[in-house]
Design goal:
single chain, 502 residues, five-stranded antiparallel β-sheet, eight-stranded mixed β-sheet, binds flavin-adenine dinucleotide, 17 helices, 2 domains, alpha+beta
Length: 502
């Protein structure tokens, strides 16, 4: 059917998917975006919208010290066994992509101060991430505005989004507007679970729509930008991804990995399958996890009442500390005092309701550290010793155990010292599990985003980006905005390639 044949089929509707769709539509290709849920944006819509796209005019305009060379140096110190072709393709194309998007009056970025996650050569003070400028919902075409998945707090509560779209909301809203403006088609409720082939070339997809199976055909290619498999426990277990599907930040019902499986059944290679973008996650009364960063006071202990890391570490690094000893550290306890009126002294998305936490036992509260330890089921003298030692560090302004307060990232969210004494009752302990922003192992791709077989040969017509692909940064989370920045760049490179524009 003519209606179901397009130049490009994009599977998924996150930041990478919609970047690819918008650029392809602008280039005059016929494009369809297939999204399995009834809203667009996936985890990208929940995100802060930080994009690590080094070397662009946006950082220059802001007087930021960024450059492609320093980004290369930074990655060079962090990445283990990188695919140099992909890294170079990313570095070369990031500024081009920003210029291409900003050439459109519908798109504008701004620099976002947000320190990079490692003190390594090439790091830029206050980071080099950029974000799409916020936009009012009513400035978007109605069709686009209606499709943007709300922020996580509202989405989980079944509420509508905000009037002004910021961060990931602005990214998804702006990109959707470009897709519609340039004649792209967006179909929600399309769950893609199979790929069509002709003589070894991928020529379309099979999707389930309202329980029925439909085929859609692609003249030039299929881009799998359908997220990872964080929402599918059996795949997580088989692949050895720490944490649980119940604790992931991906929106309910989104990323369960069937497009990755479909590509595997065609012989696609996979890598990094046990990897994710991790974070400490305050356990919610409904059993789900959430995303915490920016600790302002308090400390985190394991099941024996002992600290094991700098609580102010970038979230993926703290998550990896948890994953290093799950039997003791998952769950951990975030112990904090009453100085913020009983609220969690950190940014938590969502934080949850204090009374509901206390009723559910995801938080416990007491007037003394000894009573708190009893409520936590943790050895009282051990917790008391941890708190005493920490309070000594707070008095000295130095944490000889884990170096908290030393890095610009540690103090970024407090604007001052983070070694704050734990001495103001009541004392609260919140259960923290190991959450994630998505898995990041998946299909092996080349510098054009083409999906490869284990022998390095290309599966013609099949491209992947974002968490559906094995990340170009491997097991490391170098800086804010790397998930989105890399997803957007490789989606754009895929579109260039399938357009014959390379
Ligand atoms: C609170 C929060 C803040 C974050 N902040 C940032 C940030 O500032 N910068 C950054 O870079 N990263 C950030 N992240 C991480 C980042 O959002 C994700 O890692 C990234 O957006 C993943 O992009 P993706 O396109 O691969 O997947 P997603 O954005 O999750 O999109 C995948 C989409 O594909 C759809 N889909 C899945 N399977 C199918 C199928 N079979 N058929 C059709 N559709 C399918 C899903 O429903 C979903 O809509 C944040 C994450 C969270 C939770």
């Amino acid at each position: 059917m003519a209606d179901d044949t397009f130049d490009l089929i994009v599977v998924g509707s996150g930041g990478g998917a919609l970047t690819g769709a918008a650029l392809a539509a602008k280039a005059g290709l016929s494009v369809v975006v297939l999204e399995k849920t009834d809203r667009c944006g996936g985890t990208s819509a929940y995100s802060g919208g930080a994009c690590w796209l080094p070397g662009s005019a946006v950082q220059q305009r802001a007087g930021n010290a960024d450059s492609t060379e320093s980004a290369r140096e930074y990655l060079g110190h962090l990445l283990e066994a990188p695919d140099k072709d992909r890294v170079e393709a990313f570095l070369a194309h990031a500024p081009e992509l920003v210029a291409e998007l900003e050439a459109d009056p519908g798109f504008e970025f701004e620099w976002l101060p947000f320190p990079e996650y490692f003190d390594a050569p090439g790091r830029v003070p206050m980071g080099r991430s950029i974000q799409p400028v916020k936009i009012r919902r009513d400035a978007l075409p109605e069709a686009a505005a209606a499709l943007v998945r709300p922020p996580v707090e509202q989405d989980r509560a079944g509420l509508a989004g905000r009037r002004t779209l910021t961060g990931g909301q602005a990214l998804i809203g702006r990109l959707l507007a470009l897709v519609f403006r340039d004649g792209g088609t967006v179909r929600t409720g399309h769950r893609v679970a199979g790929l069509l082939t002709d003589g070894g070339r991928v020529t379309g997809v099979v999707a389930t729509v309202d329980g029925a199976s439909v085929e859609l055909h692609a003249r030039r290619g299929v881009l799998l930008a359908s997220g990872g498999f964080e929402g599918e426990q059996s795949l997580r277990t088989r692949s050895g991804v720490p944490g649980q599907a119940a604790w992931t930040m991906a929106p309910a019902g989104t990323n369960t990995g069937e497009p990755i499986q479909a590509a595997r059944s065609l012989g696609a290679d996979t890598a990094l399958l046990d990897q994710g973008w991790f974070c400490p996650g305050p356990l919610q009364p409904d059993g789900r996890g959430s995303f915490a960063l920016g600790v302002r006071s308090g400390l985190i202990v394991d099941a024996t009442g002992v600290r094991y890391a700098n609580e102010c570490l970038p979230y993926d690094r703290f998550g990896r500390e948890m994953a290093a000893d799950p039997s003791r550290r998952v769950p951990s306890w975030f112990v904090f005092d009453g100085r913020e009126g009983g609220r969690l002294p950190a940014i938590a998305m969502p934080e949850g309701d204090e009374a509901e936490h206390l009723a559910a036992g995801t938080w416990v509260r007491a007037g003394t550290i000894g009573e708190l330890a009893a409520a936590m089921g943790v050895d009282g003298p051990a917790l008391a010793a941890t708190v005493d030692r920490f309070n000594g560090f707070a008095a000295d302004g130095v944490d000889p155990d884990f170096g908290r307060d030393r890095d610009e990232y540690d103090t970024f969210f407090t604007g001052g010292p983070t070694l704050v004494p734990l001495d103001t009752p009541p004392f609260t302990a919140a259960r923290f599990v190991l959450s994630d922003l998505g898995t990041k192992g998946g299909l092996v791709t080349d510098a054009h985003g083409r999906v490869l077989r284990p022998d390095g040969s290309v599966i013609d017509g099949l491209y992947a980006s974002g968490n559906a692909s094995a990340s170009v940064v491997g097991a490391v989370y170098p800086a804010p905005g790397v998930p989105l920045g890399t997803a957007m760049v490789f989606a754009s490179l895929a579109v260039r390639h399938l357009s014959g524009n390379v």
